[in-house]
């Protein structure tokens, strides 16, 4: 066997080495191994490396049980254990093959230089009957160059894995074409007693591909916790067989991505049917919708009632229809989210948001519509990351009360006490200071206790009203404006937790030191 090259993944080097072995490991009757290699010192070193790749983690999101598991590492890392050591030479490979635990994490590539079938068989054989974590992926993803044989390679791999499906804990498939992904209830069906995490993702949606396949039977996954699924698989699987979702009762996290049908008459995923199907997951508390075209033309059927009241975290990414956000927030009108993240959404309007404590906008063109959302938001923490509209005018608008009488004033985001500004370089420090000053004055003035329309009797006392609070935590970092000594001193004296680390176009950084409150240019 040749040693690994630094510019290739450990899995690729291992696959090449298996093919090149002079002593045949595979015969027609099955896998035959040589006499077990005995090298106590080398084996002890390998076990130490194995221990370094393991850590104590929660068994799942819905369990308090702690177990030992693989630490996260990039599947295509040149140093991925045990493939890197097994690719060094035949001797090292033979020693590593004697320990089944080493081979419970597998990475399989489906590129034009795919993982060889013999290497996959070796890993499955050496892992004996232990639970498996399997990643099927690509070394290179080129959106402009189709891979006409990717689907066939994936089918060959599924045929090898199918007899082992009942011992797979994690199955993550990330390919180029959505047509390559397996069909739920046909390619993935039957008992999956150990399956905790299932990812079926593609870089591109093949459009109006005719994915019609009869269902063989339900996928029984009683401990499945995380489902990351392409819109195409969702449509062909769960939306056509909604009753099967009852066999996945412990799912807590769902990510739906990549559904972009082509053609003039293309129709998106039915939004209400999707939400209704998700509402049947009794433990769902985390939902992400990414790069999905939804059909919002259909109204909720008369008499239909459903909710996602258990949801805690919500994320929208690369959506281009304001009606999607509006519809989801309407369904979540009674939910109390801990976090909402809106990223790279080209929406024209942002209306009333349901209650969420932590609100984050990333790569957004923050406009007056965004300000309108802040009028109805009563959470505590706001993060603005790389948002073009965060300028002096933005701070001037939110500095002024939007309702003022002789007796009271009401400010936007009245309960906000934390503000993070990341990679926002179009505002100035004086404008930000004026906003903080206005909040300090409003919080110290007598307030009449505006009732919070979203509060319930079980809420804590500070949630019953919408009295304006001062900003107690301010963090400015990444690309950002310069700051003068006077502004730094004032902000440090009036904000309990204040940090400023702003990168300039010339590479310099303006940093406010925590204890001295001085501005340092690095």
Task: Characterise the protein shown here.
With 522 residues, this protein is of the alpha/beta class. It is 24% helix and 24% strand. The chain contains 13 helices and 26 strands. The strands form six sheets. A 16-stranded mixed beta sheet has the order 5-6-7-9-11-12-14-16-17-18-19-22-23-24-25-26. Strands 1-2 form a two-stranded antiparallel sheet. Helix 12 (429-444) links the parallel strand 22 (418-422) and strand 23 (473-479). Helix 11 (392-399) runs parallel beside helix 12 (429-444) and helix 12 runs parallel beside helix 13. The relative contact order is 0.05.
What attributes characterize this protein structure?
disordered N terminus, two-stranded antiparallel sheet, globular, 16-stranded mixed β-sheet, alpha/beta, 24% strand, 522 residues, 13 helices
Summarize the topology.
Blueprint: H1 10-20, E1 26-27, E2 30-31, H2 40-52, E3 54-58, E4 66-70, H3 83-86, H4 90-96, E5 105-109, H5 117-126, E6 132-137, H6 150-161, E7 168-177, E8 190-191, E9 197-204, E10 219-220, E11 226-230, H7 231-236, E12 253-259, E13 269-270, H8 271-278, E14 286-292, E15 294-295, E16 313-317, H9 322-331, E17 337-343, E18 356-362, H10 368-375, E19 381-385, H11 392-399, E20 403-404, E21 409-410, E22 418-422, H12 429-444, E23 473-479, H13 485-494, E24 497-503, E25 509-512, E26 519-521
Parallel strand pairs: 5-6, 6-7, 7-9, 8-10, 9-11, 11-12, 12-14, 13-15, 14-16, 16-17, 17-18, 18-19, 19-22, 22-23, 23-24
Antiparallel strand pairs: 1-2, 3-4, 20-21, 24-25, 25-26
Helix pairs in contact: 11-12, 12-13
């Amino acid at each position: 066997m040749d040693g690994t090259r630094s510019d290739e993944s450990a899995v690729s080097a291992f696959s090449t080495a298996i093919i090149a072995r002079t002593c045949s490991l595979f015969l027609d009757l099955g896998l035959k191994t040589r006499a077990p290699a005995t090298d106590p010192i080398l084996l002890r070193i390998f076990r130490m490396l194995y221990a370094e790749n393991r850590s104590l983690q929660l068994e799942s999101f819905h369990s308090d049980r702690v177990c030992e598991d693989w630490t996260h590492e990039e599947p295509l890392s040149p140093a991925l254990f045990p493939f890197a050591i097994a690719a060094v030479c035949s001797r090292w490979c033979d020693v590593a093959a004697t320990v089944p635990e080493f081979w419970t994490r597998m990475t399989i590539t489906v590129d034009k230089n795919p993982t060889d079938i013999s290497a996959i068989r070796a890993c499955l054989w050496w892992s004996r009957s232990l639970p498996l974590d399997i990643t099927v992926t690509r070394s290179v993803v080129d959106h402009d160059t189709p891979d006409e044989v990717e689907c066939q390679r994936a089918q060959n791999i599924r045929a090898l894995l199918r007899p082992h499906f009942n011992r797979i804990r994690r199955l993550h498939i990330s390919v180029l074409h959505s047509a390559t992904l397996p069909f739920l209830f046909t390619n993935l069906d039957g008992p999956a007693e150990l399956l905790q995490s299932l990812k079926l993702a593609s870089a591109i949606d093949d459009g109006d591909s005719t994915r019609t396949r009869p269902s063989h039977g339900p996928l029984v996954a009683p401990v499945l916790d995380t489902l990351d699924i392409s819109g195409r698989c969702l449509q062909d699987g769960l939306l056509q067989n909604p009753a099967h979702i009852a066999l996945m009762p412990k799912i807590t996290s769902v990510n739906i991505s990549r559904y972009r049908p082509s053609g003039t008459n293309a129709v998106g995923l039915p939004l209400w049917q999707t939400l209704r199907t998700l509402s049947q997951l009794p433990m769902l508390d985390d939902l992400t919708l990414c790069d999905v075209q939804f059909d919002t033309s259909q109204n909720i059927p008369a008499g239909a009632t459903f909710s996602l009241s258990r949801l805690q975290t919500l994320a929208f990414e690369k959506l281009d229809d304001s009606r999607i956000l509006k519809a989801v927030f309407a369904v979540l009108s009674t939910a109390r989210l801990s976090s909402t993240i809106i990223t790279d959404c080209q929406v024209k309007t942002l209306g009333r948001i349901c209650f969420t404590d932590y609100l984050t906008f990333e790569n957004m063109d923050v406009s007056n519509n965004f300000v309108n959302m802040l009028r109805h938001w009563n959470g505590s923490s706001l993060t603005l990351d790389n948002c073009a509209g965060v300028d002096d005018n933005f701070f001037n608008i939110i500095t002024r009360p939007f309702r003022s009488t002789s007796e009271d004033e009401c400010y936007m985001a009245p309960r906000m006490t934390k503000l993070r500004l990341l990679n926002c370089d179009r505002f100035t420090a004086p404008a930000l200071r004026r906003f903080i000053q206005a909040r300090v004055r409003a919080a110290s003035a007598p307030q009449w206790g505006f009732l919070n329309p979203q509060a319930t009797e079980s809420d804590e006392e500070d949630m019953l009203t919408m009295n304006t609070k001062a900003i107690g935590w301010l963090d400015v970092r990444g690309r950002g404006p310069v700051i003068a000594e006077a502004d730094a001193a004032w902000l440090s004296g009036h904000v309990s937790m204040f940090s400023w680390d702003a990168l300039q176009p010339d590479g310099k950084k303006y940093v406010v030191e925590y204890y001295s409150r001085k501005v340092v240019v690095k």
